[in-house]
Amino acid sequence: MPRGRYSLHDPHDHTPLAEERFQCAPGPSGWRYVSQLTTPAGDHSGSVDLTLDELGRPIRLELHAGSWQVRGAALDGVTWVRTDPTGAHATEGNVPAHAFTGTSPAFLVATTRLLRLTPSASATRVRLLAFTDPVLAPRTVDQSWTLLKREAHATDNGPLTVEEYQVTALDTGEQHTVHLAGDVVLAAPGIELEDLESPPSAFPATPLD
């Protein structure tokens, strides 16, 4: 069960945004990730609780940012309920998307589990429902993902398989690279892995039938 800490920063000017302390692990239902976020000043600022099924679909999502809350799941696309800070108003939404995304590294891992790409495969398009900080506003985004390469690196705990993905925003054409090892993000725009207490959990390297 990997435990560790990510630092999150603005990918453009590198302004520190938050620290995310996480733990994650495969389980009977698929994979679960939980984390707590703190501001650079050390104040609690939110949390993430995401559970995927064995096919990588989000069967449970709970996000907190400030006093905003979102609960969601894959249902007729993706469905969610967003609650305002007073708790007096809740709005429901549904869009024909494949999964959720946001600032947490959890969503990068979740997208790769859903797509299950191979290095020889062509780019795969995916539609995601993004919740943007600081108020968890929903926004649909279209991306293209390509697995550029998969390499094994020697470590003290045995070989570590690192995957390099190219992600393209289809509305702007902007591209960036994401490096993952199992269920841990090693590096991505706005994300740095600062501490890891145990090795990443290994996922099957080949797509499911």
Please characterize this protein's 3D structure.
This protein has 1 helix and 15 strands; from the N terminus they run βββββββββαββββββ. With 209 residues, the protein is mainly β. The radius of gyration is 17 Å and the shape is globular. 5% of the residues lie in helices and 58% in strands. It starts with a strand and ends in a 13-residue tail after the last strand. A 15-stranded mixed sheet has the order 8-7-6-5-4-3-2-1-15-14-13-12-11-10-9, covered by helices on one side.
Question: Tags for this entry?
Answer:
15 strands; globular; 209 residues; single chain; 5% helix; disordered C terminus
Short description:
The protein is mainly beta.
Q: Determine the structural class based on helices, strands and strand pairing.
A: mainly beta
Summarize model confidence as the mean pLDDT.
Answer: 92
Please state roughly what percent of the residues sit in beta strands, choosing from under 5%, 5-15%, 15-25%, 25-35%, 35-45% or over 45%.
over 45%
Helix share bin: under 10%
Protein name: Glycolipid-binding domain-containing protein
